[in-house]
Amino acid sequence: MNDYYADLGVARDATADDIKKAYRRSARKLHPDVNPGPEAEEQFKKVSQAYDVLSDPEKRRNYDMGSDPYAGGAAGFGQGFAFSDIMDAFFGQGAGQPQGRGPRSRQSRGQDALVRLDLDLVDAVFGAEKELVVDTAVGCSTCHGAGTQPGTGTRTCDVCQGQGSVQQVQRSFLGQVMTSRPCINCQATGQVIEAPCYECSGDGRVRTRRSMTIRVPAGVDTGTRIQLAGEGEVGAGNGPAGDLYVEVAVRGDKRFQRQGDDLHATLELPMTAAALGATVPFETFDGVSDLEVRSGIQSGEQILLRGLGVTHLRGSGRGDIIIHAMVQTPTKLTQEQEELLRRLATLRDEEKPTGLLANPAEGSLFGKLRDAFKVR
């Protein structure tokens, strides 16, 4: 009589779990698909027979008592070996078990959908309600998801007899192995539609265009996705709808450039206003503000309007408006204007400027402009 414990490499008091683990280790190493050759195949048969005996409490008890483990009408090895145990050895526990026993439901969850929504910058600043039009799948109003013409129904599938799957027995070196596959005649549902609905062709849903109003939160930016649960496509058989994702794209603005939640703008100032200072009306998304420009402002310097930028998407408050001054130098002068400027140059001792270069790190115009337009 074979020494099944030695063949499997376990002690005689090994637990059922120890036996299963030992078999999995040996099966991975000796299976003909992994280790071809007559010697490995023969060894694999020995290991498999040892497991067949030791994993069955009655066979193991007969074997331990010195009797024939297959006495009492028990099926001998190779007459109906558990294919799931081999599958477990390679893919883990439960790999050989059929998934979802019985017929499959005709209903299924619908797919998620993604649409794009273009917004103006002002809508991103404050949020907005927008009308959205989507092409999607909805439940069929004619058959209400049944997929059959009104007054008709379904019948039991002749191929799988309502089981949703068909079984097939194949012979291998292990003996007879039974496999199961979904029935293609009824799409694994166990039922066949005799007269498909003329509106949805048996799918239980139709495609249509519908509109909805959505609330866009303040602070969104290009690439932000808004999830609308249950607003996606209805599933087959009028199954639960998926989710709708709205991806935002914010259009450019002629006045402001967005950087994070701050808005940047350029203010062109006449030379005289820059020298003398001025109060300049400046239009924001909140209305017109009186912008105080100090005397002597230089090109590239910034004026800050706090709390008038984009609303923070997460949290409270808003970003700022950062205004970059740009002093305009006149290009055309009348004779009188030229005389006045020459007189001013004389009064300021600037008739013969030196034109010395300044270090950008020490606050020159170039350095200010460079720093001003860095991404914050």
Nutshell version of this structure?
With 376 residues, the protein is of the alpha+beta class.
Describe the structure in your own words.
The chain has 376 residues and is of the alpha+beta class. It has 4 domains: 88 residues, Helix Hairpins; 104 residues, HSP40/DNAj peptide-binding domain (Sandwich), CATH 2.60.260.20; 40 residues, no CATH class; 116 residues, HSP40/DNAj peptide-binding domain. Helix content is 23%, strand content 27%. It contains 9 helices and 15 strands. It has a 4-stranded mixed β-sheet with strand order 10-11-15-14. Strands 1-9-8 form a 3-stranded mixed β-sheet. A hairpin with a 2-residue loop joins strand 12 and strand 13. It is elongated and about 125 Å long.
Topology at a glance:
Layout: H1 4-8, H2 16-30, H3 38-54, H4 57-64, H5 83-91, E1 113-119, H6 121-126, E2 128-139, E3 154-156, E4 165-172, E5 175-182, E6 191-193, E7 205-216, E8 225-228, E9 244-250, E10 257-259, E11 262-270, H7 271-276, E12 278-284, E13 287-293, E14 302-305, E15 321-328, H8 335-347, H9 365-372
Parallel strand pairs: 1-9, 11-15
Antiparallel strand pairs: 2-7, 3-6, 4-5, 8-9, 10-11, 12-13, 14-15
Helix pairs in contact: 2-3, 2-5
